[in-house]
Amino acid sequence: GADGTIASRLEVHVYSCSLGDAEGEVAESEEMAPRWWGCDQVPLGQMWADDAHWLPHVLAGGDVLGDFTFADQATLVSHSL
């Protein structure tokens, strides 16, 4: 909040897998409308501000452990990886 306290804390775990042998259809949900992008064409500027810091590492096959602090839903104020 305005006094420096954290209004909420969200812990997120991200898992990745290879979809080379996947079958079925991707379906839109209330939470997201899935789209396919090449690893070098992911629209990071249209995503949450922290994604640009960790997602390229994951797409390159790496593991990431990080901490991201937002002032609001769009403003990243600090991070560590």
Would you give an account of this structure?
The protein has one helix at 51-59; strands at residues 67-70, 76-80. By secondary structure, it is mostly loops. It has a two-stranded antiparallel sheet with strand order 1-2. The mean pLDDT is 84.
Poorly predicted sequence stretches spanning 5 or more consecutive residues: none
- The whole-number mean of residue pLDDT values reads 84
The gross shape turns out to be: globular
Q: Biggest sheet, open or closed, and with what strands and sense? A: 2 strands, antiparallel
Radius of gyration, CA atoms, in whole angstroms: 15 Å
Structural class: little secondary structure
Strand coverage percent: 5-15%
Secondary-structure element string: HEE
Distance between the first and last residues' Cα: 24 Å
Number of strands: 2
Spatially, the strands of the biggest sheet line up as 1-2
Helix segment tally: 1
Which percent bin holds the helix content? 10-25%
Summary tags:
little secondary structure; single chain; globular; 81 residues; two-stranded antiparallel sheet
